[in-house]
Amino acid sequence: MIFDLKRPCANCPFRKGQGEKYQLSPKRLKEIERAEGFLCHKTVDYSKPGARGRKNSRQCAGFMSVMQHEWGGSPMMQLAQRMMGVDFKDLDPQHEAYDSWADVKKAHARPNERE
């Protein structure tokens, strides 16, 4: 199922300590933050231009964890909870993902943009 992933992968951009590695731009982070969902890069088939192999794709556990902490889930997660009874209580059991979008933004900021 699309919500099967429970832990952020080792190089998830939403895993603590990885934001500094990826340094996603503020614009990209805002796009992701406003998205209905965000697919895990390890589950997307990039060999199929346009289609991106969504059949086996999964939602990113790091993204879902941050969204769960911040807003009770992304729009897609909230819909899955209401319509399909999906339970996210086992999400990120070792608290490996950032705790908030503020933490995500701070971690991804370039060194000259950090407080």
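the 2nd protein, sequnce then structure:
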Amino acid sequence: MHNKPRLAIIRAFALLIALAVAIGAQTAWSQSAQSNGKKYRATKAIVLDSTTHQVRLPNDSELQAMVDQITSLTNRSTEGLQAKTLPDGTKQINLQGRFNEVVIARANPDGTMETRCVESMEEAAEFLGLEVVQ
């Protein structure tokens, strides 16, 4: 994997985290998000609030933004992908932004950040303390 796409993904996620922190506590606190038919609920305080400087649960919009971004980047579906044969016989497929590994971060109560590289929404949910709501 080239470093430029990975760096772009890291930057995009860093921007997502910054956006989530900037949104603050403006939204209602039901802490649920939906993706691919699964509904997630936050169970851990992972967002560093920019106003209070305290770690808190993500609000609805922050949680939905995280779930949407991670789900999109870790999409492993081959649906709609087309193979193209190059002049030398090599097959080439444009992955359309799918099959990525994503570096995600969560805030700790002491103000430090913990990171992990994940390749699925399930891995991300485990790390971020999200659980599937039945």
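The longest strand covers residues 102-107. Confidence is low (pLDDT under 50) at residues 19-31.
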